[in-house]
TrEMBL record:
Keywords: Pyridoxal phosphate. Residues 23-214 form the Alanine racemase N-terminal domain. PANTHER family: PROLINE SYNTHETASE CO-TRANSCRIBED BACTERIAL HOMOLOG PROTEIN (PTHR10146), PYRIDOXAL PHOSPHATE HOMEOSTASIS PROTEIN (PTHR10146:SF14). This is Pyridoxal phosphate homeostasis protein. Pyridoxal 5'-phosphate (PLP)-binding protein, which is involved in PLP homeostasis. It comes from Paracoccus onchidii. Belongs to the pyridoxal phosphate-binding protein YggS/PROSC family.
């Protein structure tokens, strides 16, 4: 547990997979965590964080960015269309591009604000009806629509079904990224980031293993 431990495990998993040291970006998922846990990790020098809720992120990151100017903050949670503009203002990357209406909004705000957040398309690898994300079959068409809107997606993101082994989902995501020429792979959380690294993850999203359990109280 803790940042140092997770960093060591990430380095070991990179070596085990024959991958270059530092090729995996550790996103420390700070949603819902008390401020002192997050500032402790900021003080340790970690610079990449993930948030799920626009409003929560808006309440804390503008101030922390002043104190820690080199941080980047990634949006990893579902994004409502009416929060798209704020998200484009706040975040360096968005991992939850999951529908065409959101792509249209993002394209407009990115253009107006003159910024270029890194974009990941969320793929519903388990074909789960209740889960957000583009279905594997629909991905090539979705990417084409994004490109027509002027967006340049950097990669793919998935959240495997909770009750299943993640590895087949990670493999599917990697194959889809290769087929569609996308370099980024956002996959793996506290419980399975090492297997995600073995399957080619470029970005892992780890919360509770760094900060401790979340208390939604
Ligand atoms: C909360 C969350 C995480 C981090 O989960 P942990 O199990 O605490 O590591 C990763 N990805 C997404 C999309 C999340 O919502």
């Amino acid at each position: 547990m803790g940042l140092n431990d997770i960093n060591s495990r990430v380095r070991a998993a990179e070596i085990a997979a024959g991958r270059e040291t530092g090729s995996v970006t550790l996103i420390a998922v700070s949603k819902v965590q008390p401020a002192e846990r997050v500032t402790a990790v900021l003080d340790q020098g970690h610079q990449v964080f993930g948030e799920n809720y626009v409003q929560e992120a808006q309440g804390k990151w503008p101030e922390w960015r002043q104190r820690y100017p080199d941080v980047s903050v990634h949006m990893i949670g579902p994004l409502q269309s009416n929060k798209a503009r704020t998200a484009v203002e706040l975040f360096d990357a968005i991992h939850s591009l999951d529908r065409i209406s959101l792509a249209r909004k993002l394209a407009r705000h990115i253009d107006e604000l003159g910024v270029s957040p890194q974009l990941f398309i969320q793929v519903n690898t388990g074909d789960e009806p209740q889960k957000a994300g583009i279905l594997a079959d629909e991905l090539p068409g979705f990417i084409k629509s994004c490109q027509e809107l002027g967006l340049r997606p950097h990669g793919l993101m998935c959240i495997p079904p909770e009750s299943e082994d993640s590895t087949p989902h990670f493999r599917l995501l990697r194959r889809l990224a290769q087929e569609n020429d996308l370099p980024g792979l956002s996959m793996g959380m506290s419980a399975d980031f090492e297997s995600a690294i073995a399957e080619g993850a470029t970005h892992i999203r780890v919360g509770s293993a760094i900060f401790g359990a979340r208390n939604y109280g």
